[in-house]
């Protein structure tokens, strides 16, 4: 990001700038350029086929400031996410379909909680533009709505053209009512997938991500063979999707494994309680991408030996991610290592670690930063505050260990916010300066203030350039300390107001309310720090 101005300044053709460079667009950086240059950069950030520039809300609201007075007529000239902030009243109603067709490609998740209300405003405007009456939406109208289809409630889903299922495949998540409605459409309507009685493995393969959400009522129409074959490719695909809940994947497998024929349940019930009937779990099963499909928790427990788990721990832990399965894994590891689990084992424990109790953690050997890094891997799942304190406490309890830059990168901002203020205060300014930028939005005010105090030293202009202190704050220093401003003091924010720094909406709203004293700061903040767009539309 800090090299954005140098790279962009040397190029005259915005289309020749890579998406990676354009992602460094910030209000402070583009102050270096004239308005025409900035508007070209904004157009250069538009969607080009399947290539998108990933932009955050602070960047998009800054971009909006440069086009807010323009009457835009070619909406595809801009990033679709930028249209989330555009003033719809400026759109000529003869072009409203073009506007929503372009907006339909936007990632609506970029809207912060502060501005999430715009989703419903835009959806209502789209419904009015498309003259949608009642709850039935045609295929042509759905094509215009695009990703806005994800915001439609269950009534729309059940009453609209069945093509809605294709649009919903692009959504990131659903409410329970939406899921029930989608399943009902599949089971009762004349869809492209045919009658449930005729469903096959090919049906599952063509439904995209939707099977992840469906109940056992959907899965009952498929044979065990088809489901097992499907899981071999579907599960790896799901596991590779960033941000997808491992618990959601586990819930899907539980629904898919439910046996609908009572006589089969009865014939196996007694055996399952006492013996392995699903097949011993060996290296072959551990390497099967569909594991643990075919094993309920009871069978997983009786079919997995302690030795097989020790020999195949990384593969099994990565696949068996339901909390009940994870508990089985930990219980067997406690049997295998009664005196405690070593660094080497913890480094490959993976998602199963999340089922550990504080008592379990107290027996772990966490002496190396590599172990800390492996345990804190965010893709393996979330930790509770108590678990984080126990893990970091074990690590810091080893002589010579501290919260250096490597440790901070391993722990990350969210987990850092689980630590006591006294522990946070042990972080040195040089460690924070060398660490990656940390998100501290979930920290308490006391934690934020402690971190800001450290960051103020780490990222002061004097520290960064070894020059004498100044009465203003440079754009470089601001960029580096920005993530920690929610703990900023009144004096520091006042200095910002006199430093020609443009502050975005999210940073402004993250400031300590007691620091943003209206009588003292309002004139400066409104004029210098905070964009006119934010004041007029969102404050």
List key phrases describing it.
539 residues, 0% strand
Report on the structure:
- This protein is an all-alpha fold and 539 residues long.
- Among the domains are: 1-129, no CATH class; 193-257, no CATH class.
- The chain is built from 35 helices and no strands.
- The chain has helices spanning 4-9, 19-22, 27-30, 35-44, 57-67, 96-103, 117-129, 139-145, 154-159, 164-168, 176-188, 201-206, 216-219, 224-239, 246-257, 262-274, 283-286, 297-303, 306-311, 313-319, 323-336, 343-346, 358-362, 369-375, 385-396, 405-416, 421-424, 429-434, 445-458, 461-465, 475-481, 490-497, 505-510, 518-529, 532-538.
- The protein is flat.
- The chain starts with a helix and ends with a helix.
What average pLDDT do the residues reach?
Answer: 87
How far apart the termini lie comes to 28 Å
Q: What is the tally of beta strands?
A: 0
- Low-confidence segments, given as residue ranges, are 260-272, 526-539
Strand % is: under 5%
Q: What share of residues is helical? A: 40-55%
Structural class estimated from helices and strands: mainly alpha
Apparent shape = flat
Largest sheet: none
Radius of gyration (CA) equals 27 Å
């Amino acid at each position: 990001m800090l090299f954005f101005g140098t790279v962009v300044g040397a190029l005259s053709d915005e289309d020749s700038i890579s998406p990676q460079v354009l992602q460094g667009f910030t209000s402070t950086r583009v102050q270096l350029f004239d308005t025409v240059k900035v508007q070209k950069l904004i157009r250069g950030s538009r969607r080009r086929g399947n290539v998108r520039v990933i932009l955050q809300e602070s960047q998009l609201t800054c971009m909006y400031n440069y086009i807010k007075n323009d009457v835009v007529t070619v909406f595809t000239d801009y990033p679709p996410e930028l249209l989330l902030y555009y003033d719809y009243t400026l759109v000529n109603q003869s072009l409203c379909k073009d506007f929503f067709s372009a907006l339909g490609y936007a990632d609506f998740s970029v809207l912060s909680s502060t501005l999430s209300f715009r989703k419903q405003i835009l959806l209502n405007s789209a419904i009015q533009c498309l003259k949608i009456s009642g709850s039935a939406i045609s295929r042509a109208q759905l094509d215009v709505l695009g990703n806005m289809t994800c915001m439609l409630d269950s009534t729309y889903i059940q009453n609209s053209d069945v093509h809605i299922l294709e649009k919903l495949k692009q959504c990131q998540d659903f409410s329970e009512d939406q899921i029930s409605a989608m399943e009902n459409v599949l089971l009762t309507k004349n869809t492209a997938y045919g009658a449930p009685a005729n469903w096959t493995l090919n049906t599952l393969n063509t439904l995209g991500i939707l099977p992840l959400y469906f109940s056992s009522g959907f899965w009952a129409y498929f044979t065990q063979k088809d489901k097992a074959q499907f899981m071999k490719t579907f599960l790896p695909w799901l596991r590779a999707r960033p941000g997808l809940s491992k618990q959601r994947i586990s819930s899907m497998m539980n629904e898919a494994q439910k046996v609908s024929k009572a006589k089969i349940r009865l014939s196996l019930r007694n055996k399952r309680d006492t013996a392995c009937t699903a097949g011993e779990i060996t290296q072959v099963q551990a390497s099967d991408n569909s594991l643990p499909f075919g094993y309920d928790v009871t069978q997983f427990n009786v079919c997995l030996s302690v030795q097989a788990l020790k020999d195949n721990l990384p593969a099994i832990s990565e696949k068996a991610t339901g909390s009940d399965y994870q508990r089985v894994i930990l219980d067997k590891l406690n049997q295998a290592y009664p005196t405690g689990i070593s660094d080497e084992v913890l480094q490959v424990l993976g998602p199963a670690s999340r089922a550990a109790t504080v008592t379990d953690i107290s027996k772990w050997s966490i002496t190396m930063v590599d172990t800390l890094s492996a345990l804190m891997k965010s893709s393996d799942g979330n930790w509770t505050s108590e678990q984080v304190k126990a893990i970091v406490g074990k690590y810091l309890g080893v002589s010579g260990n501290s919260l250096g830059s490597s440790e901070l990168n391993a722990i990350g901002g969210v987990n850092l916010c689980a630590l006591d203020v006294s522990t946070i205060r042990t972080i040195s300014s040089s460690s924070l300066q060398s660490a990656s930028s940390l998100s501290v939005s979930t920290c308490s005010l006391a934690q934020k203030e402690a971190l800001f105090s450290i960051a103020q030293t780490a990222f002061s202009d004097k520290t960064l350039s070894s020059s004498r202190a100044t009465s203003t704050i440079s754009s470089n220093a601001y960029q580096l300390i920005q993530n920690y401003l929610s703990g900023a003091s009144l004096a520091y924010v006042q200095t910002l107001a006199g430093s020609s720094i443009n502050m975005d909406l999210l940073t402004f709203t993250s400031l300590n309310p007691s620091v943003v004293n209206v009588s003292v700061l309002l004139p400066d903040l409104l004029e210098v720090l905070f964009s006119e767009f934010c004041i007029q539309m969102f404050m």
